[in-house]
Amino acid sequence: MLHVLRRIVLEVGAASNLAEALEIIVRRVKQELTIDVCSVYLREPEANGQRLLLMASEGLNPDSVGTVVMNTGEGLVGLVAERAEPVNLENAPDHPRFKYFPETGEERYHAFLGVPIIHNRRLLGVLVAQQRERRRFDDEHVAFLITLAAQLAGAISHAELIGEVGKRREEIQQDNLQIAGIPGAAGVAVGQGVVAYALADLESVPDRDAESVENEETAFREAVKEVQDELIEIKDRMEDVLPMEERLLFDAYVMMLGSDSLVNGTVDRIRGGSWAPAALRDTVRESTRNFEDMDDPYLRERASDVRDIGRRILMRLQSHVREPEEFPEHTILLGEDVTATQLAEVPPDRLAAVVSSRGTGSSHVAILARAMGIPAVMGVADLPVGRLEGRQIVVDGYRGNLYIQPTAELLEEFKHLQDEEKELAEGLRDLAQEPAITQDGVEVPVYANSGLLADIAPSIQSGADGIGLYRTEVPFMIRERFPGEDEQTQIYREILKSFNPRPVTLRTLDVGGDKALPYFPVTEDNPFLGWRGIRITLDHPEIFLTQLRAMLRASQGLSNLHILFPMISSLGELKGAMQLLQRARDELLDEHYVIPVPKVGVMVEVPSAVYLSEALARRVDFLSVGTNDLVQYLLAVDRNNPRVADLYNGLHPAVLHALDQTAQGAHRAGKTISVCGEMAADPASVILLLGMEIDALSVNVAALARVKWVIRSFSRERCRELLRQCVRMEEPAAIRALLDNALVQAGLGGLVRAGKA
Ligand code: PEP
Ligand code: MG
Question: Reaction catalysed by this chain (predicted)?
Fold first, then answer.
């Protein structure tokens, strides 16, 4: 059964649209379960989901498909929908809910089994099996259909979103299509879709029209020829290594490349107007599906050979990389899993917004987008990436929505919102230059988070009191190898000099988790619980020492260097890091450099560090709380997983207790504590952080002015009082409501919306 199930899911996955997918399902299920009828009913989005439409059937009258509609309260299919559980009947017509639809011709069938299709707690439709004879379907049949329905639910939900449900066989060219995701970075943008896709990944190739059919065909034929030559060369090279029999595989590859189906199939598609990569993608899909359908296991395996060849040709086709001027003026960068590197490839003055299928507002791409002041929508699980290239798109980073091909009215509405935003930003600009002092006279410096040299000028202009978090991994990520000591020294010196005497906190390399270096891949099952941050640098003292030496050298003649260690979870790790820092300094002193003693800090972003806060603080100069990670580890919610993004909440009472306890630990040790995670940029959270007597905040440049505004609008005493009330509450939503209300009362209602993003 498992084998059959896997095959069906694979075939459905290769279907090019919903109608085709549903036809495969009903045909294959009918065949495998040897039943008389298999049908799929889906909820119609137009009718508020109250109606079910027969979308595909093998066995019922074909004319009834696309026409039979029932209310969810009607008939046996409606009963399955209502109960959201399987209904298994020996003789359906005996059941009081049986309703006869003459168009279907179903009076002949007695046995009935219906299972619900559910995605994210929402009923999408019903999968039905029917048989002439009277019988109860056995457990195996029920289990099979439930498993299949659960596996197909995601694909159906996706099709529903892109408007395929209820529009059988129609081309999807819907205007003003709205798709929901998760807010990633506040703001709105209007622009043109550009798909960022992983190189050599056929499945992520977007649809695109051929600009010149002739050029596409030539490029494709050249790529095929190059791969053929490459394979012949590999075969020759392997002569002494592999026996003849094994080497024949390469001949088979070369033959496949010359085959009609792969080459002509692709060329036909190119001549039909597609660009070469998408034509190749579809031809490979078709060909692999044919192989996968075969019963002979040897031939089934050939599917992976076709895919391999497809990837090789694609790689050749992709040797042409997009030039900066090929990005439209207002680029909306879209992708399955947009990476920081892809973001950095777009010239900043052309990047209008980012949209990613994976990730959440706490992912690093979203953080980077906030730092660049552009909106981002994350976790759009059903993003039809392949169809968005070149389309006009509105990105609403406040609510986490996208609008594809918006209507003129909607465009007008968003333009208006953009103007309002600009006004608010301008209103705050002057305020940003004022010191951040509470109404009862406590100064709470607001620093900027940064990671790019390009951020420095905006950070200075924005009125930042210094840099509270410089993510050194960013310059590492946009290079093709580890930067050397001199190269790093230069980068760090430029930042230190620009801000001197204001403090600059350079965090040591924090890769792993969702931050990969293209030239240092780390593949793990649970990367956030794995080899990350300080764990990597302690295991690679050569990399760590190079970086520490560069930081220290950069600080010659300056007095503002602060060094921060990420992901510390034990005193032992801190000791190891301090020893290496000492060693780097000793080496430099031996080399006759004059190096001031830097201030050293520890990031509190792992729960164990909360409990060790006093002990850690005693050994360093300051603590800095990384709430982005701390929240994910405290609540066991992956910061990148859109499925659980609703559970990720900095105002969770457990988080508030942990922060309060950390602040007390630092102060007992007589040291300062700052917060550099995204919570520090959320106006409601800022009130509580002030109440906890956090000494400084570090935020993305775009949020700097509003955070200062909050600080200047409250007294510390009032914040303490609000904190006292909040820690007695149990629900994050109630805490948020109380704080939003406090913001409104203080005249900061305009920030309430911004805080949610
Ligand atoms: C954090 O975890 O809060 C933090 C500031 O670090 P990063 O977001 O880079 O992991
Ligand atoms: Mg972190």
Answer: L-histidyl-[protein] + phosphoenolpyruvate = N(pros)-phospho-L-histidyl-[protein] + pyruvate
Catalytic residue, from 38, 676, 719, 726: name it.
676
CB count in 10 Å sphere of residue 248 = 12
Token digits of residue 43: 């909820």
Nearest to 538 by CA among 559, 518, 511: 511
601 Cα to the center of ligand 2, angstroms: 14
Pocket lining for ligand 1, CB < 6 angstroms? 367, 469, 471, 510, 605, 626-629, 676-677
pTM, entire model: 0.73
Sole residue written with tokens 């189906």: 261
Q: What is the DSSP letter of 129?
A: E
Query: For the segment 477-521, what is each residue's pLDDT rounded down to a tens digit?
Result: 777 789 999 999 999 999 999 999 999 999 999 999 888 887 888
Domain 2-161, CATH: 3.30.450.40
Q: pLDDT per residue over 90-105, tens digit each?
A: 999 999 999 888 888 8
What top-level class would CATH report for the domain 434-755? alpha beta
Indicate if 364 belongs to the active site.
yes
CA of 166 to the centre of ligand 1 (A): 44
For 206-317, the fitting CATH number among 1.10.1610.10, 1.10.274.10, 3.40.50.300, 2.40.10.120 is 1.10.274.10
726 is a catalytic site residue? no
Q: Could you read off the pLDDT of 231-251 as tens digits, one per residue?
A: 787 777 666 655 666 566 667
Distance, CA 332 to ligand 1 centroid (Å)? 25
| Residue 373 confidence class, pLDDT cut points 50, 70, 90 | confident
Which residue intervals of the chain bear CATH 3.20.20.60? 434-755
Instruction: Tell me which fold the domain 177-199+328-425 belongs to.
Output: Glucose Oxidase; domain 1 (3.50.30)
Probe target for ligand 1 pocket from 364, 370, 605, 678, with the most ligand atoms within 8 Å of CB: 605
Torsion angle in degrees (nearest 10) through CA of 307, 310, 315, 319: -160
Rounded distance, CA 144 to CA 5, Å?
A: 8
Ligand 1 centroid, distance to 627 Cα (angstroms): 7
Domain with CATH 3.30.450.40 in the chain: 2-161
Q: How far apart are the first and last CA of the chain?
A: 46
Q: Where in the chain is the domain with CATH 1.10.274.10?
A: 206-317
Atom of ligand 1 nearest to the CA of 625: 3
